[in-house]
Amino acid sequence: MNYQPSDFLPIFVQLAAAMGFIVFTMIVTHILGPRRSTKLKDEAFECGIESQGDARTPISIKYFLVAILFVLFDIEIVFMYPWAVNFKQLSWTGFWEMAVFMGLLLAGFVYVIKKGILKWEK
């Protein structure tokens, strides 16, 4: 099926209308909204619990590394699902492409293991 640029015009019009509505709403609410600032209103609110301590408490970098690695390796499922659905249509070419993809992911995982990023204690 050949698509013409005019086939996408309704999508772009709807996108422009949505973006225009968002910008218009933000500008109007900023102009018309009340500007009452009090000490109580400017305080941090945490589910009704009084704030205490410093919000800048240092957290171990290991936590962030594990979280980023989880997201990185979890994204592979996004690529594997369409591949699995179309497995028969992709034939051996699709199989070898996914094998290369999985090999690269495995190489990254081996690197992470060798660097000791997933070890919590040294």
UniProtKB/TrEMBL annotation:
Keyword Phosphoprotein attached: no
GO terms under cellular component: NADH dehydrogenase complex; plasma membrane
Catalysed transformations (reactions): a quinone + NADH + 5 H(+)(in) = a quinol + NAD(+) + 4 H(+)(out)
GO MF, one example: NADH dehydrogenase (ubiquinone) activity
Parts of the chain that traverse the membrane: 12-32, 63-83, 95-113
Places the protein is found: Cell membrane; Membrane
Keywords, comma-separated and alphabetical: Cell membrane, Membrane, NAD, Quinone, Translocase, Transmembrane, Transmembrane helix, Transport
Transport listed as a keyword: yes
Record membrane topology: Multi-pass membrane protein
EC annotation from Swiss-Prot or TrEMBL: 7.1.1.-
Stated role: NDH-1 shuttles electrons from NADH, via FMN and iron-sulfur (Fe-S) centers, to quinones in the respiratory chain. The immediate electron acceptor for the enzyme in this species is believed to be a menaquinone. Couples the redox reaction to proton translocation (for every two electrons transferred, four hydrogen ions are translocated across the cytoplasmic membrane), and thus conserves the redox energy in a proton gradient.
Assembly: NDH-1 is composed of 14 different subunits. Subunits NuoA, H, J, K, L, M, N constitute the membrane sector of the complex.
HAMAP family referenced in this protein's UniProt entry, alphabetically: NDH1_NuoA
Family in the record: Belongs to the complex I subunit 3 family.
Record-given protein name: NADH-quinone oxidoreductase subunit A
Native organism: Sandaracinomonas limnophila
Gene name in the database record: nuoA
